[in-house]
């Protein structure tokens, strides 16, 4: 793996990615390159709504281009497991404007 944007410590960890178009994708970081293109395994997209619980759309092995990534964050697995996604309500994220 090449030197990258400080993601080395997150490899094989569950992470959450917010894309520039406002998507929230959660998965296990498997790799990345110097352009911050990332590979996620066991991934799913979380779709938020004010009317119903969070939809989780299974994506599996997924690649996200670095120029489409707005935020990468560690996931607190204990906290995440304690959340009842069927009861969460939230406005969908708006696209990120740089």
Automatic annotation (TrEMBL):
InterPro entries assigned to the protein according to its UniProt record, in alphabetical order: Lsm8, LSM_dom_sf, PTHR15588, Sm, Sm_dom_euk/arc
Keywords assigned: mRNA processing, mRNA splicing, Nucleus, Ribonucleoprotein, RNA-binding, Spliceosome
Gene Ontology molecular function, alphabetical: mRNA binding
Localisation: Nucleus
Classification via PROSITE patterns: SM
Main location: nucleus
Residues covered by the Sm domain: 2-78
Domain of life the protein comes from: Eukaryota
GO biological process entries: mRNA splicing, via spliceosome
GO cellular component: precatalytic spliceosome; U4/U6 x U5 tri-snRNP complex; U6 snRNP
Ranges that cross the membrane: none
Listed CDD domains: LSm8
Record's function text: Plays role in pre-mRNA splicing as component of the U4/U6-U5 tri-snRNP complex that is involved in spliceosome assembly, and as component of the precatalytic spliceosome (spliceosome B complex). The heptameric LSM2-8 complex binds specifically to the 3'-terminal U-tract of U6 snRNA.
Subunit structure: LSm subunits form a heteromer with a doughnut shape.
Family: Belongs to the snRNP Sm proteins family.
The protein's name: U6 snRNA-associated Sm-like protein LSm8
Lineage, opening ranks: Eukaryota, Viridiplantae, Streptophyta, Embryophyta, Tracheophyta
